[in-house]
Write a structure and sequence with these properties.
Chain A has 1010 residues and is of the alpha+beta class. Chain A is built from 32 helices and 13 strands. Chain A has 4 domains: 418 residues, Multidrug efflux transporter AcrB transmembrane fold; 143 residues, no CATH class; 136 residues, no CATH class; 211 residues, no CATH class. In chain A, the strands form 4 sheets. A 4-stranded antiparallel sheet of chain A has the order 2-5-1-6. Chain A has a 4-stranded antiparallel sheet with strand order 8-9-7-13, with helices on both faces. By secondary structure, chain B is an alpha+beta fold. The termini of chain B are far apart. Classes of the chains: A alpha+beta (1010), B alpha+beta (253). Chains A and B meet through helix 4, strand 2, strand 4, helix 18 and helix 19 of A and strand 6 and helix 4 of B.
């Protein structure tokens, strides 16, 4: 330190020039790093759950869905719907918005009056609002759609949802801003809610940035105010700020140089640097003032560096160690925060040791000569109080130690119970936009928390897949050879079966899977809302529905990954975690990962066929029951077994030809034959040139065909059609009619059988007064009983030919947050170990004693225990922001112990209390001032809206005060040595000082003026 | 006299550009373009549609279109597998049918689906179906250059179209447009369609672009492009039956 003191006093100009060059270079590099607005940067990249989540997000674009909730008096009010229609088109035309889905552009399938069957149209057609009948029927029609209610409109018809799919790669914050502006302009007077990842992350980023922009100047002002009050020296404060400013400039310019973006935690670095870094300069200055009273100013500078330099160096190093311990964390923004804050602290500390003394040397002639004091001034009020406390602690050592021990044990017990959980409320307050949106979606749309099950459908194993993908790059036609499994209806049914099983949980409000839009598409194509029986049909339906952006949330563009979205009713973490655990368990135990297709007609393996039939009957029964439940029916207890038995008995049998069934077939066939869907081509007149009644003839043919019963042969059909219509169609045309009618005739009997199976279900499930819609739904569900192929879990461990391998993984934000919590816990432990270890080593090195190292660590350790115990008492859990506290508290909190211990010297008369009083009075002012500076700086930050900053601010502010208080209590009580720090040069300087002081005048207080 | 001569010369100078650039009326330019665009009885084209999503593999769709001058179209998809064999029949602006080969059924499509991106691209069925503008839009000449006329189109009162405003850039040498700007009701340009590499019949009575690009400005300037494959086939003499629902059904059965 003597060498350093010589350099900064003898080569002051050189030191100042070097620092000026350094600052100039840094300013030329730039000190404004680019902002980082990706909240996901905080997720640990190595965590498996996070990796899966990121892959899913990239494939399905889930993080690019912004949801606008609109609460109004009546969604079906034409005026509102017109506004919604305009909003939908305006949002679609907004830069950065890829697609928009709302009530006014949702597709719907309705009976086609022109052509029979189903036609695709808008669910809400604003052009038809002039039609009063349309307007009146709209509410009932929309609220009757299962796939719309709870997804785009609430049951009461007072809230609606608009989904905006953002263009990937664009600045989300800007796009979100434009979306908000457009929506607020169009929806004046309506209550708006902003949900989804883009709004949430934009809110978190914006509030934190705003808080920092608004509060940082106030925090700095508070710090400067505390400094001015404590030291009452304007130039000294300016010099301290210069040293910290140099640290900040270097740290920020290094970020620019290495293209490190300014993330949310790094934004708080200026406050930390000014609060913590200013202390180094202050300690130098304080000592300088004291020495300058009795000696030449340059000599005073030299001696001040020699005396206080080691303590400043040690405190700087321990603080750097505290921040550098973040480098062991697996969260990149935290590592960067630790690295650059440590750098800033280090530079501030070096500047305080070099630049301030150099400046003092250079300006010593300019500084006002203080009058020689004639008597030693009495310690200030604060120093006296601190001295009294320390003396009392030293006097009642046993009591103090016992109380500290009890508090420590209690704190440890409490702190051990602190849960490590990361929940959304860790990022935003209860009245914030995202929280209000969460509450709205929970209230109106059955929840805002989702768990996702990702199913890897790629037929190839992961290794083969990598090779396959590489091959595809060069030979796109290879793709044709790898058929995606999800196009197999058996796989889709398995996904549906599992989804329906999950949906049975009472905490779950809905489960969305790709089977739902495919069923809707099939309804349009084939009149029945079900999963088709063949791969070709599934592919056809995909072609139909794949342009719908909501479908892209369920199925990847290459059809090799699919996602099941599970909506949870409650946002409470315990409920979400409970559901997550149960879903994970269900995936583990119940998901059929290995399937083999069994063709019921072709298979000769009796055992396999029996297994297939059992599986088919059970799965169909479960599906029918799930449909009944979804329709709000209460399923009678024990009905599953009875339904399985009934369906087992009906399995493989043909439709029961009853008069009702026959009438149903006649109605369907007559309608088909008379429609434009029938390709037969009715003649303009009879062969005799007479007019005829088409509908009447169609019915005659229908009656004739229905009379043949199911499975009629071609000859019989031809004869029947001939008998019924030869007089109208002529001698050859009837054959065309017979041929074209074959497919629909089979379909009609299948519908009748389904109706019969549906009625069986109604009876067994104990449904009172079933509506035709319910019977139709159950009948459609029961059609699966006639499926030609069944997927079963292959018996044994062998991998038979044609094995369908499905790989499910549970994901979603709750899983990611669980992963983040795991990471936080691990980071906390690691950073604590590293910071404690490094700080302990520094202490041992400084005090040359293991015991001294332990004693020095105690106040910071006790503070940590107390803070985390308090966290438990406050009912909060440890999360990403609280995990920063330990490192900072250790790194900064230890400083107080260092300063106190360097001043500790047992009096010759052995009076511990007076020794403690002296040490406290010498160091107390600086310690208290610094504690208040840090406390005030962070307390101001805690006044913002951003939740992470708030929690961090409160915890650091309180821990700093606590660390200071504990220092004055615990160290005097535990002090066991005569002195902890031996200054070789200091001794002489001090001796000289004291001699001079006694000869001339007592020294001015080294501590700040209280 | 001098003053009079001066005034006259100033007037002559001011009038000169107007006289030199006297253009046919914008409506005539538009009608002439429409006539040339529809100068065939039927037209068969094979297209490959590609959408270049940033950071993703481009998606491709192949289809054949048979077009008639009044806007009737039959689109037959050949790639990818999901939609192979699917047919779309556009009988008029308000009547569109889709044939699903696996189900062997024809279904009618109404409303917004026509205005949605075709296979994830910037092209909509409406964009592809429109071959007439003068019926729906009032036209105004915005400016002209040596090579182009710039027409501003605004929808006529009472007419319903997907885009209330359009701006057409028409090549003077061909009399055909090479750029359309689609403008929304707020006056913002949303999409730009470019018609490139025109190929004309030997008698120059009809030209067809071999490449059509659509740039969507609101989707990060996402580019979709339709590239012509194979020969342009004119006037194959397709009967009305080809453009009927029944034809679709019969060919299936």
């Amino acid at each position: 330190m003597n060498v350093l003191a010589n350099i900064v006093t003898k080569l002051a100009w050189l030191v100042l020039a070097a620092v000026t060059i350094l600052v100039t270079v840094c300013l030329l590099i730039g000190i404004w790093p680019q902002p980082e607005n990706d909240i996901l940067e905080f997720l640990p990249p190595e965590d498996r759950d996070v990796q899966v989540f990121r892959r899913i997000s990239a494939t399905f674009g889930g993080l690019e869905v912004a949801m606008i909730g609109i609460e109004t008096q009546d969604v079906f009010e034409p005026k509102f719907l017109k506004k919604l229609d305009v909003l939908t088109s305006d949002l679609r035309d907004t830069n950065g918005v890829d697609r928009v889905v709302s009530l006014t552009n949702l597709a719907d399938f309705e009976p086609d009056k022109k052509q029979r069957g189903i036609k695709a149209a808008e669910l809400v057609d604003v052009r038809q609002f002039r039609n009063s009948k349309y307007r009146k029927g709209l509410r009932a029609r929309v609220l009757g759609k299962d796939h719309v209610v709870g997804q785009f409109v609430d049951k009461a018809g007072t809230s609606t949802l608009v989904m905006c799919f953002l263009v990937p790669g664009m600045n989300q914050q800007e796009v979100v801003g434009r979306i908000k502006k457009v929506t607020q302009e169009q929806m004046k007077g309506e209550k708006l809610y902003w949900g989804g990842a883009p709004f949430a992350s934009s809110y978190i980023f914006e509030t934190t940035q705003r808080d920092l922009e608004v509060l940082t100047p106030w925090a700095l002002a508070a710090i400067i105010l505390v400094m001015l009050i404590a030291f009452r020296d304007f130039l000294g404060v300016v010099l301290s700020l210069i040293s910290t400013g140099v640290g900040a400039v270097v740290a920020f310019s290094m970020m620019v140089l290495f293209e490190v973006k300014l993330n949310l935690v790094l934004s708080s670095m200026p406050v930390i640097l000014f609060a913590v870094g200013s202390a180094y300069g202050i300690h130098i200055l304080a000592r300088y003032y004291k020495l300058a009273e009795t000696r030449d100013p340059v000599k005073a500078v030299h001696d001040a560096v020699v005396e206080v330099g080691p303590a400043v160096l040690a405190t700087g190093l321990t603080t750097m160690a505290g921040f550098a311990s973040f480098l062991v964390m697996d969260i990149r923004p935290m590592r960067l925060f630790g690295l650059f804050t440590a750098l800033g602290i280090g530079v501030s500390m070096l500047t305080a040791l070099c630049v301030i003394p150099a400046l003092l040397t250079v300006t010593s002639r300019l500084r006002r000569k203080r009058p020689m004091v004639t008597e030693k001034p009495a310690p200030g009020w604060l120093s006296r109080k601190v001295g009294t406390i320390a003396a009392a602690a030293a006097r009642r050592r046993l009591v103090t130690v016992c109380v500290a021990a009890v508090l420590f044990v209690t704190g440890v017990i409490l702190a051990a119970g602190v849960k490590v959980e990361v929940e959304p409320s860790a990022f935003y307050g209860s009245q914030s936009e995202p929280a209000l949106a969460d509450a709205f979606f929970g209230r109106r749309f059955g929840g805002s928390q989702y768990i996702q099950i990702h199913i890897d459908m790629d037929p190839a194993d992961p290794v083969e897949r990598v090779e396959g993908n590489a091959l595809e790059e060069f030979f796109p036609q290879v793709r044709q050879q790898r058929k995606p499994l999800i196009e197999d209806p058996l796989v889709m049914r398995e996904v549906r079966r599992f989804s329906e099983k999950v949906a049975k949980m009472k905490e779950i409000s809905s489960v969305l899977h790709v089977g739902l839009p495919v069923s809707l598409g099939t309804e349009m194509a084939d009149d029945l809302r079900r999963i088709p029986d063949t791969r070709a049909k599934v592919k056809n339906v995909y072609g139909l529905v794949s342009t719908d952006p909501t479908v892209n949330q369920l199925l990847s563009p290459n059809h090799r990954d699919l996602l099941i979205h599970i909506k949870i009713k409650s946002s409470k973490l315990e409920v979400v975690n409970r559901v997550l655990n149960r879903v994970s368990e269900l995936v583990r135990k119940d998901f059929r990962r290995r399937l083999v297709a069994v063709d019921l007609k072709k298979t000769k393996d009796v055992k396999l066929r029996t297994l297939a039939v059992t599986t088919l009957v059970a799965d169909t029964s479960d599906h029918v029951m799930a449909v009944a439940r979804a329709r709000g029916c209460r399923v009678a207890a024990g009905s599953r077994a009875r339904l399985i038995a009934a369906y087992r008995e009906r399995f493989g049998k043909s439709v029961a030809v009853t008069p009702a069934a026959r009438a149903g077939v006649v109605a369907n066939m007559a309608s088909y034959l008379a429609s434009s869907e029938f390709p037969g081509g009715w003649p303009g007149s009879t062969p005799d040139g007479e007019k005829y009644d088409k509908k009447k003839t169609a019915k005659k043919i229908a009656v004739a065909l229905a009379g043949l019963g199911p499975g009629a042969k071609e000859d019989a059909r031809d004869k029947a059609v001939k008998a019924a219509s030869v007089d109208v169609l002529g001698s050859s045309k009837y054959l065309d009619f017979s041929t074209f009618a074959e497919r629909e005739l089979g379909h009609s009997w299948r519908l009748q059988r389904a109706q019969q199976l549906g009625r069986i279900a109604v009876r067994i499930l104990g449904v009172n007064k079933p509506t035709p819609k319910l019977i139709q739904s159950l009948a459609t569900a029961a059609v699966d009983l006639d499926a030609p192929t069944v997927a079963v879990v292959p018996p044994g461990a062998d991998e038979p030919k044609g094995l369908l391998a499905l790989r499910p993984t549970v994901s979603g934000m709750p899983v990611v947050l669980r992963g983040l919590a795991r990471s936080v816990e691990r980071n906390q432990i690691l950073s604590l170990i590293v910071s404690l270890g490094v700080v302990f080593l520094i202490m041992v090195f400084m005090f040359r004693s293991l015991i001294a190292g332990v004693v020095a660590l105690l106040p910071a350790g006790l503070t940590l225990v107390a803070v985390f115990g308090g966290l438990r008492l406050a009912g909060r859990s440890m999360d990403i922001s609280t995990s920063m506290v330990a490192g900072i508290a250790i790194g900064v909190g230890i400083d107080y112990a260092i300063h106190f211990m360097t001043w500790w010297k047992k009096r010759d008369d052995g009076d511990w209390a007076e020794s403690a009083r002296t040490a406290a009075q010498e160091s107390g002012g600086g310690i208290v001032a610094n504690a208040f500076m840090v406390c005030m700086g962070f307390a101001v930050l805690a006044m913002g809206q951003g939740q992470p900053l708030k929690v961090l601010g409160i915890m650091i502010a309180s821990s700093m005060l606590m660390a200071a208080a504990i220092t004055f209590l615990v160290i005097p009580a535990l002090a066991a040595k005569k002195t902890y720090y031996r200054r070789s040069v200091h001794e002489s300087a001090s001796a000289q000082n004291e001699a001079e002081a006694s000869a001339l005048a007592p020294a001015a207080s080294a501590a700040p003026r209280d | 006299m001098k003053q009079l001569l001066l005034v006259l010369s100033v007037v002559m100078i001011l009038l000169a550009p107007g006289v030199a650039s006297a253009a046919p009326s914008p409506l005539k330019i538009l009608q002439k373009m429409e006539r040339k665009m529809n100068a065939f009885k039927d037209l068969t084209l094979k297209w490959t549609l590609r959408v270049r999503h940033p950071g993703k593999k481009h998606s491709a769709v192949r289809f054949t279109v048979i077009t008639r001058p009044k806007g009737q179209r039959l689109v037959r998809y050949t790639y990818p597998g999901d939609i192979k064999g699917m047919h779309v029949l556009v009988q008029s602006r308000d009547e569109m049918y889709i044939y699903l080969p696996a189900f062997r059924k024809v279904r009618r499509i109404a409303g917004h689906i026509r205005n949605q991106g075709f296979q994830g691209s910037g092209f909509t069925y409406d964009d592809m179906a429109i071959a007439q503008w003068a019926v729906y839009y009032n036209v105004r000449l915005l400016k002209q250059t040596k090579k182009h006329w710039y027409l501003s189109l605004k929808v006529k009162p009472g007419k319903t179209v997907a885009w209330p405003q359009q701006m057409l850039r028409i090549r003077k040498d061909l009399g055909l447009m090479d750029e359309i700007h689609y403008i929304n009701r707020r006056g913002r340009k949303i999409k730009t369609q470019r018609f490139l590499r025109y190929k004309c019949k030997s008698d120059n009575s009809h030209c067809n672009p071999k490449l059509i690009q659509m740039v969507e400005h609101t989707r990060g300037n996402l580019v979709s492009e339709m590239k012509l494959k194979g020969k342009i086939r004119y006037n194959k003499g397709y009967s009305d039956r080809i453009f009927s629902v029944r034809y679709l059904l019969r060919s299936a059965n």
